[in-house]
Amino acid sequence: MADAITVNHISKRYGTVEALCDVSFNVQKGEIFGLIGPDGAGKTTLFRILTTLLLPDNGSASVDSLDVVGDYRLLRTRIGYMPGRFSLYPDLSVEENINFFANIFGVTLEQNFDLVAPIYRQIEPFRKRRAGALSGGMKQKLALCCALIHKPHVLFLDEPTTGVDVVSRAELWEMLADLKEQEISILASTAYMDEGLRCNRVALMSEGRVLEVCPPPDKLEEYFIEKLGNG
Questions:
Q1: pTM of this structure
Q2: Mean of the pLDDT values across residues 101-114?
Q3: 226 and 121 belong to one structural domain
């Protein structure tokens, strides 16, 4: 069975800054895989390459067996992407944002309601409220709902809980565990070590490099610090 994501020796530079250096790993189908590292580790650059928004300088990558460069048009219909910053339309209501993204993919909320129902029911009381007026946690739930509206095969979440309260963080990761049971493969980046423990496997990243790929050890923070020292 082919992997959900395959990354082979990806590198990317911005001028003299080496954002990614020879990055390789794979994400198995149906797993939650975490990219763990501080700001500047290269997580967002890698996400943009894997979601067809940025070209690598070297290397190759495939998502859902599609090349991220050559098959980018088809690939965009099979993935869901939730960037780190809130990227929905703040002047549109919750309901209007969901309908907008559903129309882009040629679906309706009703078609995939079973998938998004646990999330949608939490934001439904605010469906007429402008997205920009939502709390941080509700904004993230709306963004996740929009990313799932077309039932993607692979879901990308770039630091989805940054700036979100502790309760909303826990709720979001519980939702991701439920999505895994729906056979959606998930790649999530985070700087929070406790969130790394919720993943099946993690890639420890620092300064554009992957230090190790492994199941998360119980004392992940200490393990990461040790790896940084050895690196």
A1: 0.92
A2: 90
A3: no
